[in-house]
Amino acid sequence: MTAYSQQHSGNEALLAPVKQQLEAYNNRDIEKFASAFSEDVKVYRQPGVLTYQGRDELKKRYGAMFAATPDLHCELVNRIVAGEVVIDQEKVQRTKGQSRTDAIAVYRIKDGLIVEVTFIPPVSN
Q1: What region does 39 belong to: left with phi over 0, alpha with psi -120 to 50, or beta?
Q2: Is the pLDDT of residue 29 over 90?
């Protein structure tokens, strides 16, 4: 079951780049994926560690991953929208037949593009 918070029609423009990058991720379409992000996008790992910056670096990293993982698929489990922030809870599968991993991504949107994304690894017991 998928739950969505604050899904109002006014959020469609805000959600457009997040939806675009998810669809492109699942299709391993690096050009469409990268075009959802600003030229100087900042990518963080929790707790606030800047992993890399810029669309060119994003294309390089994700392009290599897309090429290496033909079964890559991300399923949206839950989405929260608050102001210009979109938080996605996801299940990611890298190889068919293997278990999916939990992922949390926090996207900050400005002028119709993702300007910042923070990945928060779930804590395992």
Answers
A1: alpha
A2: yes
